Amino acid sequence: MDIAALKAELDGEVPLEENPRILQQKSRDFYWYSPVLKRQLDAVAADLVATPRSVDELHAALGSAWRNDVPVTVRGAGTGNYGQAMPLAGGLVIDVSALDRVIEIGEGRVVAEPGAILAKIDEATRASGQELRLSPSTYHTASIGGFVAGGSGGVGSIRWGGLRDAGNIIRLRLAALDGSIPSVVDLTGDDIAKASHAYGTTGVITEVEMPLAPAYAWVDLLATFPTLEGAVRYGETLAAADGLLLKNVAVVDASVAGYFKRHAPYLPAGEAVAIVVAAPFAVDDVARLAARAGGTVTLRSDQLDEATRARLPAAFELSWNHTTLRALRVDPAITYLQVLYPQPDICGKVLRIAEIFGDEAPTHLEFVRFDGAVGCFGLPLIRYTTEARLDEIVAIHEDNGCPIFNPHRYTLEEGGMKETDAVQLAFKRRADPKGLLNPGKMIAWDNPDFDYGKPYLFPTLAR
Amino acid sequence: MDIAALKAELDGEVPLEENPRILQQKSRDFYWYSPVLKRQLDAVAADLVATPRSVDELHAALGSAWRNDVPVTVRGAGTGNYGQAMPLAGGLVIDVSALDRVIEIGEGRVVAEPGAILAKIDEATRASGQELRLSPSTYHTASIGGFVAGGSGGVGSIRWGGLRDAGNIIRLRLAALDGSIPSVVDLTGDDIAKASHAYGTTGVITEVEMPLAPAYAWVDLLATFPTLEGAVRYGETLAAADGLLLKNVAVVDASVAGYFKRHAPYLPAGEAVAIVVAAPFAVDDVARLAARAGGTVTLRSDQLDEATRARLPAAFELSWNHTTLRALRVDPAITYLQVLYPQPDICGKVLRIAEIFGDEAPTHLEFVRFDGAVGCFGLPLIRYTTEARLDEIVAIHEDNGCPIFNPHRYTLEEGGMKETDAVQLAFKRRADPKGLLNPGKMIAWDNPDFDYGKPYLFPTLAR
């Protein structure tokens, strides 16, 4: 790597930054959600940060990296929490936050640059009565490129499934790191999987085309239940209700609800809670079904006065990783896991796991559509003690038929299916023949014979 | 029944008709789809038809029927095919087709009178970018009141489930037959089931409030497959694709496709066909998945020239009961059944049934969402021979784990779950204490101890 040569080439062409504090800041994401990643990645820092103001400038930075063998890690808003935007081998971080234009809005689709913030895209599309289908709970701060490169679904998945599902990404434009002038390719259909959820290891996303859903004046609803089982069964009922237009359905146990400080007046102690975001014309049915399931509707945002509504965080900001964040703010020792509770008998699996761990792993569920059926992801809080115990908790989940997508790993494979993604690997050989894009994140590239029985450690990282 | 007194009361107040040909015409629906119903119901006729021009006039007709003990059968557009709008006991038919106003259009909802034709409602709502979620294939001729009173789902059910699902009917306003001035009640939530799919036996629908979905420029697509299995598996794949916005997914075997005369250039002989209606931004994925499943896309309406597109029936008019209609036009001896192919292994059940019957019952499937999962209804064509054989075909389906909703029965119970609907029965006791509303359609009212092992025969009908 010849970072000095790269710097000389780009100086005056592309905004560069080498202030150590900026380098550190732009080399980090929310990796500190995980005590494991915090230990492993705390020293990670880029040598240089480039903030291109145009796709041409981004191409220039990639060309220079190619010529000078400089590793490139692309960063959106840095709201991920798997260390996916952290430059394990140093080198150049390309911050795409200035590439934030909404280029085109059509019927059911929007074209944007990768740095566009999700909420800003929706501000632009709402004039046409449309909004993005899917977003993480970091909707107000996350970029569309980062979401596509590192996310999997979130708010909206109860209706539309995940980013991996056909139709949820229409097109990605990708710049390769394959020469002084990068190749540019538009990926559609099956080819989208070459670059979605690849942490930028297979190319740099320079434009996205996403589907849009109708925008409604969504209503937040909290329903509390005397038992976790009651709340879970209610969540399942809503998730199976094909005629109710919902945007999110989360369920948390009583001890998790205790971390929702600003919602405390609506959350009786000891009660499990369902957190629902529904279309205005569905909310009466959502409330009725809560009562029938033995719950009590304690909050409906359409029945709050304006001042109260303005003061409360939106319900989606009690869900997905914002649930974890709210707990972390109160108790920094808390971390979390990502669990799949498979069909059939989702509720039985949830209750069994809840009973095994008790207060060590309070229940947090997110209901989604998964391959045309009701799916249920868990993001349990974990009262962290040691890495060994964390691994044990993972193993106990898996022994009970509940796969873990481990958020304490920085590689694509260990956070995912624990196997080589042959499509991404083959594509990386063409798009990044020198292996300069986000080194250390794709085990299959570094070590095709890796044994997934143990954690992967990228060579540059001290243990 | 004192029909003369009723006539004297209403004369000059409500438009009346007693021309025998009109009486016969207004006493019929598409019951002749069934050779069984054709035999049983051919002689059915009202004594008088009233066509109220306002809800007040309708109320006046109901009041007079109450005073004079005249049976009342309410009729929308008469596009049903279970004899549900046929006055088995004679008396008064109330034709609501003049009550066709679209009263109010809001975000995600429309309020209309019962006689409003579905396509006309959509003409009114389309200005706001909205349309009805669900419709039968008789979209251009069916009334919303008739659909709610006698239908169950149809086009749109691949996305929204059925009319029975929470959220797919927002409110029904009902006039009872309980006095000289009818009681009026608005049904919402669980109470909607008291009057939806009740054939007008529990009250007269005078206003409906329905949810609206976004309206898109839907694209029709035909994909042909060398085998029925290929087409069925493709249909299942589409039905499970949460990220693809679809409006209808039907699959027919090669011999059924032969009845689609105007689409013949797009239907190679011997090939099974998937008939898909998709949003414009989903159609590329629909086509790609067809190719991957071994199919050939032979028609995409977005790639036809204007003249060709104008000449062809819409794809939804190849689906649901329009499939049956097209076969009947070619071969009047054909009839059909309504089958549920339950999860799991939908495809296995479909193929087993197809093999048992061969050309006696060519396969026609409609994929839907059913309780939050992929569902599959069959509307197989039946090459009719005798009633005994038809009953045998029904029994063989049921012996193979595939329940039949028998379209050769005119009662609610026999066409449905073959059991008393306690909610509707209890409500009818209040809303129609004299049992004057659509007599003969609710077995539970006439004969609570009926044995569902044999067909029901209403006493006024000659065998």
Q: Could you please describe the fold and organization of this structure?
A:
The structure is a homodimer. Chain A is α+β, with helices and mostly antiparallel strands and about 475 residues long. Chain A has a domain at about 220-400: Vanillyl-alcohol Oxidase, Chain A, domain 3, CATH 3.40.462. Helices cover about 30% and strands about 20% of the residues of chain A. Chain A has helices at about 5-10, 20-25, 35-40, 55-70, 120-125, 145-150, 155-160, 230-240, 255, 285-290, 305-310, 320-330, 345-355, 385-400, 410-415, 420-430, 445, and strands spanning about 15, 50, 70-75, 90-95, 100-105, 110, 130, 170-175, 185, 205-215, 220-225, 245-250, 270-280, 295-300, 335, 340, 365-370, 375-380, 380-385. In chain A, strands 14-11-13-12-17-18-16 form a 7-stranded antiparallel sheet. In chain A, helix 1 (about 5-10) runs antiparallel to helix 4 (about 55-70) and helix 8 runs antiparallel to helix 13 (about 345-355). The interface of A and B includes residues 168, 216, 279 and 372 of A.
> Overall pLDDT of chain A, averaged?
97
What kind of assembly state do the chains in view correspond to?
Answer: homodimer
User: pLDDT below 50 for ≥5 consecutive residues: which ranges of chain A?
Assistant: none
Largest chain-chain contact?
A-B, 44 and 44 residues
CATH superfamily of the domain at 219-399 in chain A: FAD-linked oxidase, cap domain/gating helix
